[in-house]
Design goal:
250 residues; alpha/beta; eight-stranded parallel beta sheet; globular
Length: 250
């Protein structure tokens, strides 16, 4: 599985654009990556993840405004692999939907994520703004780490910027046959499930713009078939809930 040791081709340029636009410091991201590598004594098996995802249908679930209307549909598909952004976890668990993989930079419900780590794989992202929270990974049973810089020890870079789009990059890199987006709207309206404070709305919208652009870029650099049940996005086929059943079966 040598491919898993490599960043998606062209990622470095995308990362530099993010650093420039947001004023982030690469050295802080590197520092976070080294810290996470030191904290993760044992990482969840890539081979197990490959068996879980490769050639399978995968639902990627974000915390956008359309998530609420997706819940009854998601409950119908119990046997499909589900990867969620951490802020979507609360409503999923309340409705009996248990994702196999949770993507987080540790700004979600940490006590709930810790509880779910007994049965779900927790993919923790290290960046300059969450260094103070990285110690929390010691509480997770099934865990692996990611970075947005170069590979650091055990810490891989599969691409992506926010939890939602990182989940799509993750599913793609592990060979999902089809990826379906739920609650991934990328509009000016921020979903209540996202736990975004009023003071953070502007930066959140800016992050979503980048996330959408990255997914549009990914659509030309993946072997996975891409679908969305949220807002239209270039490179993803927009389908209805009725069409979902046929797409999953075919």
């Amino acid at each position: 599985m040598l491919i898993l040791e490599l960043m998606i081709r062209g990622w470095s340029k995308k990362y530099e654009e993010i650093l420039q636009d947001f004023g982030y410091k690469k050295q802080n991201d590197l520092r976070a990556g080294y810290l996470l590598d030191s904290l993760l004594c044992k990482q969840y098996s890539f081979l197990k993840l490959g068996r879980m995802i490769s050639g399978k249908n995968v639902f990627v679930i974000g915390s956008g405004p359309s998530l609420g209307s997706s819940i009854p549909i998601l409950k119908q598909y119990k046997n499909i692999v589900k990867i969620c952004a951490d802020t979507a976890l609360d409503i999923l668990i309340k409705n009996g939907i248990k994702p196999q993989i949770i993507i987080t930079d540790l700004d979600g419900n940490l006590s709930l994520i810790r509880k779910q780590s007994n049965s779900s794989v927790i993919v923790v992202h290290a960046h300059g703004d969450n260094i103070s929270r990285l110690e929390f990974v010691k509480n997770f049973k099934n865990c692996l780490g990611t970075t947005q810089t170069r590979k650091i020890g055990k810490i891989e870079n599969f691409g992506g910027f926010t939890d939602g789009d990182r989940a799509v990059f993750f599913a793609s890199r592990f060979g999902a046959a089809k990826i379906f987006l739920f609650g991934m709207d990328f509009g000016s309206k921020i979903g209540t499930y996202s736990r975004t404070k009023k003071s953070e709305m502007k930066i959140k919208r800016k992050k979503l713009v980048h996330a959408k652009k990255l997914l549009e870029w990914l659509s030309s650099n993946t072997k996975s078939d891409l679908f969305t049940l949220s807002k239209p996005i270039r490179g993803f086929r927009k389908i209805t809930y009725k069409q979902l059943k046929l797409s999953v079966q075919s």
